[in-house]
Amino acid sequence: MKKIEHLGIAVNNLKEANELYTQLLGIAPYKEESVESEGVTTSFFMLGQTKIELLEGTNEDSPIRKFIAKRGPGIHHIAFAVEDISVEINRLQKEGFILLNETPKPGADGKVVAFLHPKSSGGVLVELCMDAEDYLKKLEEKSDD
Ligand code: ZN
Fold first, then answer.
1. Bridge partners of residue 77, in order along the sequence
2. Distances from the Cα of 71 to the Cαs of 44, 53, 65, 68, in angstroms?
3. DSSP character string of 21-52
4. Whether 78 contacts 88, CB under 8 Å
5. I need a labelling partner for 131 at 20 to 30 A (CA). Which of 10, 85, 86, 141 fits?
6. 70 alpha carbon to ligand 1 midpoint, in Å?
7. Cα of 110 to ligand 1 centre, how many Å?
8. pLDDT (tens digit per residue) in 19-52
9. How many whole angstroms separate alpha carbon 64 and alpha carbon 70?
10. How far, in Å, from the CA of 96 to the mean position of ligand 1?
11. 77 alpha carbon to ligand 1 midpoint, in Å?
């Protein structure tokens, strides 16, 4: 894995959290984005090489709403940037980690992502992420073989 790409933080109210984090970090979010399939609205703050992602659940079935109902708002996941997400998924499966997504799926901020079950990663929800463009390029390369 290359670096911590972002920290995901579950919030009750994105608008209020944006204000709080703007005050805290001294910078404004550079984007807001809804991921319908995940039932979330997100905002991103850039901090050097790393980002902070705030996530608000948009419906009752949203994993973010469920997380907050159980554990309250706060740190939700750590996302690691990886060179090749398919290779990394295979490697981690061989190491015995449980993948919530065996095939990468579209995430926020132009990424494809896959999550590890926190049960297999010490109670921490881990997200693997890779630029969607790079992912598609690699898929094409592989299908050319
Ligand atoms: Zn994330």
1. 8
2. 22, 18, 10, 5
3. HHHHHSS--SEEEEEGGGTEEEEEEEETTEEE
4. no
5. 10
6. 19
7. 11
8. 999 999 999 999 999 988 889 999 999 999 999 9
9. 10
10. 22
11. 7
Q: How far is the CA of 44 from the centre of ligand 1 (A)?
A: 10
User: What are 58-106's pLDDT values in tens digits?
Assistant: 998 899 999 999 999 999 999 999 999 999 999 999 999 999 999 999 9
Q: Please state the φ and ψ torsions of residue 5, each to the nearest 5 degrees.
A: -80, -45
CA 141 / ligand 1 centre spacing (Å): 27
Distance, CA 54 to ligand 1 centroid (Å)?
9
CB 53 within 8 A of CB 111: no
Handedness of CA 8, 9, 11, 16 (dihedral sign): negative
Q: What is the pTM (predicted TM-score) of this model?
A: 0.92
